[in-house]
TrEMBL record:
Keywords carried by this UniProt record: Hydrolase, Manganese, Metal-binding
Cofactor notes: The Mn(2+) ion enhances activity.
Annotated binding of Mn(2+), by residue: C113, H115, E149, H176
Chain ranges of the Peptidase M20 dimerisation domain: 198-293
Domain of life: Bacteria
Protein's organism: Antricoccus suffuscus
Protein name per UniProt: Hippurate hydrolase
GO-annotated molecular function: hydrolase activity; metal ion binding
Entry coiled-coil feature ranges: none
Pfam families (alphabetical): M20_dimer (PF07687), Peptidase_M20 (PF01546)
Gene3D superfamilies noted in UniProt: 3.30.70.360, Zn peptidases (3.40.630.10)
Highest classification ranks of the organism: Bacteria, Bacillati, Actinomycetota, Actinomycetes, Geodermatophilales
Length: 417
C-alpha cells in the first residue's frame, strides 16, 4: 500500500468534524477582507494539530507550517471569502446572513463560490498529514487567503510580508470546487484560467434640460455608441478563434426623463488568455472610447479606472506532469483534462511572487447522476447551478471527500515516503 493511500484511509474518521466545520463556515460566510471569524477557527484548528501558525497576513490571511524532516517544501492554498449573494437553496445549513460591504451597504452574504469547501478540504489535508507524519517528510505549508473574489487577497498576503514568514516553497498547489461530478478532478498544463480586468469608465458630457438637447452633450447617446463599438473588438479586431471577452456589465446615467445628465459611468469586464491579447483589448477599448468622446465633443476626456484585476493562471508543465500522474493513479479515468476556464483566479500571484512553480486544478461537487442526466439533455447550464449562483449547492459529504482526496494526493506526490 502506498503511503498516500494510508493517509487517504484516514478521511473516513474525520467525516463528522469535516461536515460540522463546513456547515459552520457555510452558515457564517464573510466578505472579502472581513474573514476574521473564519481565520480564527482555522488558526485554532491548526494550532491544535501542532502547526506553527502565523496570523494577520494581508491582513486577514494566515499560514500554518509543519516541518517534518528533510525534503520538499509544499505550499497549498485555500481562499476564504464569500460573496454578496442571497442564498436561495433550501439546505438546512443555508446562510441567512446579511452584512455591511466595503461601501457600508447592507448585503446578503453567501459562500456561493465554494471557498468554505476549499478551507475544509485544506484543513482536512493538514490534519491527515499531521496524523501521519511517518508517511511523509519535508515541510507542509497550508495557506488560507483572503479576498480572492476581489482579486487582491493573494497580493495583499505578499505585501504583508509572506516571503519573510514562510520557507520558500518548492511548489505551490491550489484547487477550486466547480459543478463537475463529485468523483472528478480536472487539471491542465499551461494557461488554465483567464486574465481579467474590470474597468470603470466615466464619460463627461454637459448636462442640460431634456427639451433642449442642443444645449448639452448627451453622455447617454455617447455611451450607447460606445457599447455598440466595444462589441466589435472581439469580432472585428482579433483573429478569429482568439479567446477574448469584452462585457459591459453596467451602464448608469441620469435620474429623470427630462434631464440630460452631465456624466455616465460604464463598468467593463475583459478576459484574455495571453498578456498580448489583454494589452490589445485595453488599447482598443481606450482608443474607441477616447475617439467617441472626441466625436461627441465632450468638454473633457473620459476617465479610466482599472480594478478587480486577476493574473493569467498559467500552470507549470512539470508540476502538471507530476501531479496529474498521481491523479491518474488515484482517480483513474475520473482524472480529466480541464477545459480552459473563462473564469479567473488570483492564486498564481503567490507562487509567481515567491518564484515557485505551481498547479491549480478543479474538483467536482455535483451528484454524478444529476450531472449525467443534465448533460444528456444538453441542459448543464440550466439544471446545474454554477458558482456565484444563489442556488449553488455542492453535495456536502462527497464533495469534501473529493477535494480532500485531490489535495492529499497532490501534496503527497511531493512529500510521500
Ligand atoms: Zn468566485
Ligand atoms: Zn472562487
Amino acid at each position: 500500500m502506498s503511503t498516500t493511500q494510508k493517509v487517504l484511509d484516514g478521511i473516513a474518521d474525520l467525516k463528522d468534524w469535516h461536515e460540522a466545520f463546513y456547515q459552520d463556515l457555510h452558515q457564517n460566510p464573510e466578505l472579502s477582507f472581513q474573514e476574521t471569524r473564519t481565520a480564527g477557527l482555522i488558526a485554532d484548528r491548526l494550532r491544535a494539530l501542532g502547526y506553527e501558525v502565523h496570523e494577520g497576513i494581508g491582513p486577514t490571511g494566515l499560514v500554518g507550517i509543519l516541518r517534518n524532516g528533510d525534503g520538499t517544501t509544499v505550499l497549498a492554498r485555500a481562499d476564504m471569502d464569500a460573496l454578496p449573494v442571497e442564498e436561495l437553496t433550501d439546505l438546512p445549513y443555508r446562510s441567512k446572513h446579511t452584512t455591511s460591504d466595503a461601501t457600508g451597504a447592507q448585503v446578503h452574504v453567501m459562500h456561493a463560490c465554494g471557498h468554505d469547501m476549499h478551507v475544509t478540504c485544506l484543513l482536512a489535508t493538514a490534519e491527515l498529514l499531521a496524523n501521519n507524519k511517518d508517511a511523509w517528510s519535508g515541510t507542509f505549508i497550508p495557506l488560507f487567503q483572503p479576498a480572492e473574489e476581489v482579486g487582491t487577497g493573494a497580493k495583499s498576503m505578499i505585501d504583508g510580508g509572506l516571503a519573510d514568514i514562510i520557507p520558500t516553497p518548492d511548489v505551490a498547489l491550489g484547487q477550486h470546487l466547480v459543478p463537475l461530478p463529485y468523483d472528478v478532478v480536472a487539471s491542465r498544463p499551461g494557461p488554465a484560467m483567464s486574465a481579467a480586468d474590470s474597468i470603470r469608465v466615466t464619460l463627461h458630457g454637459r448636462g442640460t434640460h431634456g427639451s433642449m438637447p442642443h444645449g448639452g452633450i448627451d453622455p447617454i447617446t455617447l455611451g450607447g455608441a460606445i457599447v455598440q463599438r466595444l462589441n466589435g473588438i472581439v469580432s472585428r479586431e482579433l483573429r478569429p478563434g482568439t479567446f477574448a471577452v469584452v462585457t459591459v456589465g453596467s451602464f448608469q446615467a441620469g435620474s429623470k426623463s427630462n434631464i440630460i445628465p452631465a456624466d455616465a459611468v460604464l463598468l467593463l469586464n475583459i478576459r484574455a488568455y495571453s498578456e498580448r491579447v489583454r494589452a490589445k483589448l485595453k488599447e482598443s477599448i481606450e482608443r474607441i472610447i477616447i475617439a467617441e468622446c472626441e466625436a461627441s465633443d465632450t468638454p473633457q476626456p473620459p476617465d479610466f479606472e482599472y480594478y478587480d484585476q486577476f493574473p493569467l493562471t498559467d500552470n507549470t508543465e512539470a508540476v502538471y506532469d507530476h501531479v496529474s500522474a498521481a491523479f491518474a493513479e488515484h482517480f483513474g479515468d475520473k482524472s480529466t483534462l480541464m477545459t480552459p476556464s473563462t473564469g479567473s483566479e488570483d492564486f498564481s500571484d503567490i507562487p509567481v511572487a515567491l518564484g515557485a512553480p505551481f498547479l491549480f486544478w478543479n474538483f467536482g461537487g455535483t451528484d454524478p447522476d444529476v450531472y449525467a442526466t443534465a448533460a444528456a439533455a444538453g441542459r448543464l447550464a440550466q439544471d446545474i447551478p454554477s458558482n456565484h449562483s444563489g442556488y449553488f449547492a455542492p453535495v456536502m459529504g462527497p464533495a469534501i471527500d473529493n477535494g480532500t482526496k485531490a489535495m492529499v494526493v497532490a501534496v503527497m506526490s511531493y512529500l510521500g515516503n
